Amino acid sequence: MTKADKFVWEETAWVFQGTDQAGERLFVWVTGKGAEAVKADDGYPRAQLKADVLRELPDAKLIRIRPGLVDGKKVWEVYYSRELNVKRHYYAFYGFEDGRNIVTYTLPVRTSG
Prior knowledge:
four-stranded antiparallel β-sheet, 8 strands, 1 helix, mainly beta
């Protein structure tokens, strides 16, 4: 194991990254329902997703890209900000296997209270 991400959305999932005995890179999603391993080569490359997002949103400031689980589907979570008239933050979810956008959430603007 080389990395572990705790992902909390509808349910909590841990996503572990590492290599198996044969040296093949894997992602392993672990939830309360069990575990599922996926070969990294079967997923959409993180670096390609980053390039895709920045091509579509060149003004975006990427904060993180990590694997997760939304509606029972393996995803890439892209958390970023953009400053148009006001700085806003976004969560965008892309299919882990194909890199297609599933849904994007715009977070409310923070106001000082």
